[in-house]
């Protein structure tokens, strides 16, 4: 009976790197790993519940209204006027408060799961505003630069927000991403509060020149132009101080030939763009060694830009 | 004797539209018309002189150091260690202080002329910094968003200034530009002094989202995306007040189906992007009528984006 409605589904939603230096709040891209996995099951309880969470060291709330995964599922059901019991098991396979879009991955995995179980009543594009509400719950700001890449995959531009206007940018061939997460927690909400409310016009012009250069570089598959444009004179100077050995890591990466180096989201994770998998791995090893020398544990990942976004995992047994 | 060194040359350098709404100081494109024409002749005087100027109503200086055309020629000769008498006749075929890159057209025409007469010792790319010095003389700021398009043609991104990093963006097919110049003078120097020195970070993010959207729109040949991105919440609100009937003109243009509407440079010229020559002409006529009703004389131009830049004109007789 292949065609019967499944009542359980497993969805993986990838972590994502937002900002890309100059592009604060407007760019994001998805990684192959890490990410979140959600196993969702329909039931007769009439309620949405978090049944279990693994990998969060007990830090995430289990209240339906406070956990982003259950909260966005409830929003989804409300929007469609559905009453449905839903049990959620969340496998957090990535660090929290890492700047890798952890809350976004949970929201996206949960929404793709419920939408699958409900027969795909909404398109992925229609899921975006609901995922953004998950971000509002998680960090106080309905930003889309993590949820959009986690949902759609690829390299996403958020042109504007009223309504959300996303543009899929071309992903350069041979572009690899190295990601290093030092075990230091920087909650996104706090990271946003550190930012200046006013900036010099002159700096803004420098920044949007680089933003334009970065977009042109992606379209032209020009890694040198991408590298020259990966500068951030506004946000990075404020946030770098909270990231251990940020400038030493940047020097190491750039001397080793990285295309560019920057903060992933609000940090503390840093990322490099590289011309090969091998280069990304070598640079990750150097950065990891530097952190280890200072007794800072860390996790490293190497990935191309994930062009698929959230994906439904094969079931181990057909239920 | 076709191969002898010519001692006179005529060069036309096109007017240009800088900024394109959100892209203050980083975008510019060249027009087919209007522009400046320079007739330059080598002589034995040992000096660079302005021999005549037409079309400026006596407003431009004729001192070698103060006129941008002669000043950049002197810079060129100094840079190459040359001593050479040069006579310059400048035919100003465009309005001054119009926001159409009038000073840039003079500098560019003069530099291309002297470089041609000297056997093209520098590339056009090498002429750019000299043309930027002409802008510093003319308005106090060595900006490149008029000189680069006037020199190279096309749609130019100025990614950064240290050193000048220009990127030629693709020019969408079927994109026409209507330009309307109301006879009101706004010197660039004054227009720059009106601008705020500090701006809200939130507005800067909105602006660079639109900058990124505009670049993506050019690469994707997507006139709708270009139109959605042609917004300026930072500079336009400050400058619009100096341009007669700006918002009424914008309403007219957008209701008539323009892709976008904005201030050319620092104004008072306004421009529309249109999907056809006919539409650009019709909108120009409507805008011109509106200005005429208020007794404001004006000049209108319709052009594709000029992809050639400054050009050497055929001589009427071989000297």
Structural description of this entry:
The structure is a homodimer. The first copy, chain A, is about 35% helix and about 25% strand. With about 325 residues, chain A is an alpha+beta fold. Chain A folds into two domains: about 10-170 and about 305-315, 2-Layer Sandwich (Ribosomal Protein S5, domain 2); about 175-305, GHMP kinase, C-terminal domain (Alpha-Beta Plaits, 2-Layer Sandwich), CATH 3.30.70.890. In chain A, the strands form two sheets. In chain A, strands 1, 2, 3, 4, 5, 6 and 12 form a seven-stranded mixed β-sheet that branches. A four-stranded antiparallel β-sheet of chain A has the order 9-10-7-11. In chain A, strand 3, helix 1 (about 70-80) and strand 4 (about 85-95) form a beta-alpha-beta unit. In chain A, helix 1 (about 70-80) runs parallel beside helix 2 (about 100-115). The interface of A and B includes residues 22, 197 and 200 of A.
Largest sheet of chain A: 7 strands, mixed
Terminal CA distance of chain A:
10 Å
Identify the quaternary structure here: homodimer
What is the second-level CATH architecture of the largest domain in chain A? 2-Layer Sandwich
Proportion of residues in helical segments of chain A: 25-40%
CATH class of the largest domain in chain A: Alpha Beta
Strand content of chain A: 25-35%
Quick check: average pLDDT of chain A? 94
Number of domains of chain A: 2
Computed CA radius of gyration of chain A, to the nearest angstrom: 19 Å
SS-based structural class of chain A?
Answer: alpha+beta
What is the N-to-C order of secondary-structure elements of chain A (H for helix, E for strand)? EEEHEHHHEEEHEHHHHEEHEE
């Amino acid at each position: 009976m292949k065609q019967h409605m499944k009542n359980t589904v497993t969805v993986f939603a990838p972590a994502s790197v937002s900002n890309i230096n100059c592009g604060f709040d407007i760019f994001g891209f998805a990684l192959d790993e890490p990410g979140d996995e959600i196993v969702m099951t329909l039931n007769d309880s009439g309620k949405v519940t978090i049944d279990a969470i693994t990998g969060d060291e007990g830090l995430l709330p289990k209240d339906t209204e406070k956990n982003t995964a259950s909260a966005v599922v409830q929003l989804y059901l409300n929007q469609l006027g559905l009453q449905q019991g839903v049990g959620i098991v969340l496998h957090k396979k990535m660090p929290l408060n890492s700047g890798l879009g952890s809350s976004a991955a949970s929201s996206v995995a949960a929404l793709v799961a419920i939408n699958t179980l409900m027969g795909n009543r909404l398109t992925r594009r229609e899921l975006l505003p609901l995922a953004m509400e998950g971000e509002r719950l998680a960090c106080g700001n309905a930003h889309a630069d993590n949820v959009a890449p986690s949902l759609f995959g690829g390299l996403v531009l958020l042109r504007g927000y009223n309504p959300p206007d996303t543009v899929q940018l071309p992903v350069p061939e041979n572009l690899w991403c190295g990601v290093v997460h030092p075990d230091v927690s920087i909650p996104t909400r706090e990271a946003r509060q550190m930012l200046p409310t006013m900036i010099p016009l002159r700096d803004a012009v420098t920044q949007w020149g680089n933003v334009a250069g970065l977009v042109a570089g992606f379209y032209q598959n020009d890694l040198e132009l991408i590298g020259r444009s990966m500068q951030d004179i506004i946000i990075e100077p404020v946030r770098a101080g909270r990231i251990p050995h940020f400038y030493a890591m940047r020097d190491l990466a750039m001397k080793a030939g990285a295309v560019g180096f920057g903060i992933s989201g609000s940090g503390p994770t840093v990322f490099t763009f590289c011309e090969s998998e091998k280069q990304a791995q070598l640079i990750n090893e150097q950065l990891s060694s530097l952190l280890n020398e200072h007794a800072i544990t860390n996790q490293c990942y190497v990935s191309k830009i994930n062009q698929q976004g959230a994906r439904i995992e094969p079931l181990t047994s057909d239920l």
